[in-house]
């Protein structure tokens, strides 16, 4: 890339930390600031969801430190990761904390930034394209569509204990949000589906799993709320995955642009049935 594209952008200063979102996978979705940070950082502390192709943009000689956290697998403690950022900055390094998606969307970026504040470490936040938007776009599923929904809810499928969050008002979400996008929900999709059906969602409502979004390994499973758990198990799909509930899933036959590049014939779709539209 022409260096002039970066000339007006901020640079990482020694002794500081940048908390940067790497997007959902495709390195083409990195922001200019993220790409510049990769080319300047002395140490890159990255999580498990950062695509290796993004890390290939690191400058020669940069140190890569893995700090991934994956459910059910040995992982670094969050406090230890945050303190490591402090230690590296105090040593005078230009530190890049690289996170999949966006650091402030279920990415614990706020926790790490607060630790930096506590220790008087200068930092910068560089947003990224969150998987709940970018990953669905790569699957041909829009988060909003004027004929379908005027609201969307983003939620996490488990809390810090690994259980379904008990502070989520499933009845309110089920009643009030026509489209629900869920991070880290595969492990508890059976319980979550039951909660939503109990809250009034139709058992045959469209659901999609988007696994390894925006990478060459991306897979998409289309199913329904009542079949989600069984179909996911039968298909053998595994995290990382985004799960979306709502009629926007039914637009995929029309908008699967990646599929079209491989020969899939897209079909036009119109939502003419008022029962399939969001209630005004």
From TrEMBL:
GO terms for biological process: cobalamin biosynthetic process; methylation; siroheme biosynthetic process. GO terms for molecular function: uroporphyrin-III C-methyltransferase activity. InterPro entries: 4pyrrol_Mease, 4pyrrol_Methylase_sf, 4pyrrole_Mease_sub1, 4pyrrole_Mease_sub2, CobA/CysG_C, Siro_Cobalamin_biosynth, Uropor_MeTrfase_CS. It holds the Pfam family TP_methylase. The keyword Lipid metabolism does not apply. Keywords: Cobalamin biosynthesis, Methyltransferase, Porphyrin biosynthesis, S-adenosyl-L-methionine, Transferase. Residues 17-225 form the Tetrapyrrole methylase domain. Pathway: Cofactor biosynthesis; adenosylcobalamin biosynthesis; precorrin-2 from uroporphyrinogen III: step 1/1; Porphyrin-containing compound metabolism; siroheme biosynthesis; precorrin-2 from uroporphyrinogen III: step 1/1. Its EC number is 2.1.1.107. Belongs to the precorrin methyltransferase family. NCBIfam families: cobA_cysG_Cterm (TIGR01469), PRK06136.1 (NF004790). This is uroporphyrinogen-III C-methyltransferase. It comes from Metarhizobium album. The lineage of its organism: Bacteria, Pseudomonadati, Pseudomonadota, Alphaproteobacteria, Hyphomicrobiales.
């Amino acid at each position: 890339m022409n260096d002039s594209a970066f000339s007006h952008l901020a640079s990482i200063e020694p002794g500081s930390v940048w908390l940067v979102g790497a997007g959902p996978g495709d390195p083409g979705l990195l922001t200019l600031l993220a790409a510049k940070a990769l080319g300047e950082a002395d140490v890159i502390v990255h999580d498990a969801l950062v695509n290796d192709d993004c890390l290939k943009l690191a400058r020669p000689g940069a140190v890569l430190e893995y700090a991934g956290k994956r459910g059910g697998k040995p992982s670094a403690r969050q406090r230890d990761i945050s303190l490591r950022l402090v230690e590296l900055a105090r040593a005078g390094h230009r530190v890049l904390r690289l996170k999949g998606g966006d650091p402030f969307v279920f990415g614990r970026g706020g926790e790490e930034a607060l630790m930096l504040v506590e220790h008087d470490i200068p930092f910068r936040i560089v947003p990224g394209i969150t998987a709940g938007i970018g990953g669905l776009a790569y699957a041909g599923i829009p988060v909003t569509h004027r004929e379908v929904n005027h609201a969307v809810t983003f939620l996490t499928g488990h809390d810090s204990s690994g259980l379904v969050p008990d502070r989520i008002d499933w009845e309110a979400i089920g009643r009030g949000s026509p489209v629900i996008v869920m991070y880290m929900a595969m492990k508890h999709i059976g319980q979550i589906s039951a909660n939503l059906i109990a809250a009034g969602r139709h058992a045959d409502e469209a659901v999609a799993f988007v696994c390894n979004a925006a990478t060459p390994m991306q897979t998409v499973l289309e199913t329904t709320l009542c079949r989600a758990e069984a179909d996911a198990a039968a298909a053998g799909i595994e995290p990382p995955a985004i799960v979306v509930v709502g009629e926007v899933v039914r637009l995929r036959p029309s908008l699967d642009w990646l599929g079209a590049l491989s020969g899939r014939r897209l079909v036009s779709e119109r939502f003419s049935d008022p029962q399939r539209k969001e209630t005004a």
